[in-house]
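Appendix B. Raw example, untouched.
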Amino acid sequence: MGCFNSPYAMVRIMISDKILKKVSKPGRYIGGEYGQILKDKKDIKARWAFCFPDTYEIGMSNLGMRILYGSLNSYPDIWCERCYTPWEDMQKEMRENNIPLYALESGDPLGDFDFVAFTLQYELCYTNVLTMLDLAGIPLMSADRGEEHPIVIGGGPCAYNAEPVADFFDIFSIGEGEEALPEVTRLYIEMKDTGTYTREAFLHEAAKLEGFYVPSLYTVTYNGDGSIKEYTPKYDDIPVKIKKRIIEDMDKAFFPDKVVMPYIETVHDRIMLEVCRGCYRGCRFCQAGNLFRPVRRKSVEVLNQQAKTLYENCGYDEMSLTSLSISDYPYLEELCDTLLCWTEDKKVSMSLPSLRIDSFSKELMDRISSVRSSGLTFAPEAGTQRLRDVINKGVCEEDLMNAAKIAFGGGKSLVKLYFMLGLPTETNEDLCGIATMAEHVLDAYYQNPDRKKGSKPPQVTISVASFIPKPFTPFQWEPQDDLDTLLEKQKYLGSKITNRKIKYNWHEAKVSRLEAVFARGDRKLSKAILEAHKQGMMFDSWDEYFNYEKWMEIFKSVDIDPSFYANRRFGDDEVLPWDIIDIGVTKSFLLREKKAAYEERPTPNCVEKCSGCGANKLGGENSCCPKI
């Protein structure tokens, strides 16, 4: 490869124009974007290839990847580069022309790196991980890798139950990585410098660091019924449970001052300003609300400066304020007013993607451009107050009607409502309530004396997803409805929607069932994922590639019953596949919340009253949950 005057020369040599003309969206594969970080290899002691197991357009939109890319590259002797899953047409060309998977910045093959890292955002990306390792020429199984191979590390939300893919990874980073990943890199560099590095020795030492799970160092035994008996560490000096890492002070946390600017259109091509982490609401179906506790906020001053810097360096004309529940940020109006002082002059629009019904106001609507469009989106989640109390949603129909009245009075005509189907204790009455609630929203339009004359006719879109029992939630023990029941409920709800002004969309139940299998799975599922890869399975989250029937055949071929994971009620005292991870929120709290659900008893949110979830042992600056 040429030197760094042309850092992506290898790509141009290996990926000829002839090949690029054969594939869709060649801009995915050429690198060289404005904002990419280039370094001289002679100054580098550790190299990271940060892999997103989906297409370039999706991976380039991921805020976490932007943050970690910048964090690792803030160290002069560490170089982090990017890699995404090539589309099938490009995979074909790479295999036919013996082109290994490479990083976009340097064009070097992934096999040349010290760390090959994957962010696991969604269970149905697992086959893409194997596709990328295979294209890179890296052994798929951790046990088959030698001293010459990179350390393969995983992180992201799915790493909190890493067991279904444990056999493919050397290490998992549990929790937030801005400080953790540089720390494990320092360990690697130190062992290399002192001559003490071997793969085995490094993995042993990494397992001692807080927030790092090395699955090969833990033995899993099973009961006669297939459930887990216990996890046993192979060494006395590694933790029995792996405690997640958090950033305590978000004002001091690394945040990129520039981002890589894509050549082609991506899903979210804008400034993404992270306002806070965590959520104090306590919805009982929500995994993220527990994984990212406690809530930690940034100050208005820091957010305004970060927004200005990103605008000056990137020139985006759109900004999204992101968090799990942006309208719960206590200084939101002050933040919006502060940002509007300069964004209006610069013609930078603002959007708030996660508004709650009970905190929506005309003042907030008037402040942001996203709600100056024709539509608004809210998430009641359930059709009756009884079921909303079961899931601890914390909103009522009156909140929705007030929000709809404000929206229609402001000239809006389109409202989208998100619901879940198959929730614990759900009845047909709850399903009918979804259709009734949509009708009531339409009524609110026609009954609103403030609606503007000449506005478009109203339309309500209800979007319904199937409930998936996720780890680290009060419903983690609950069975998912079997496939036939989910399909029957989708059909039943459709029969109750007769108004042409109500549009009904639903999520594919087969996709939700497979997601549940992997969400609650153990290490035995690795053989199914490996077999799926051998049979060419990939891009399972894409409609054109998803093949439920083939997955069922694969499970059968490796003697796995998917119902054992998706449709079985787990025992309260059972060792769960993810029990080896400590997220701060205790199992006893989750069990109390499950009991409260069946009693249809809401739990106050963290601001109103502490319910003793356990996350206060983690603490954090600017948090509603101070450290004890």
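End of appendix B.
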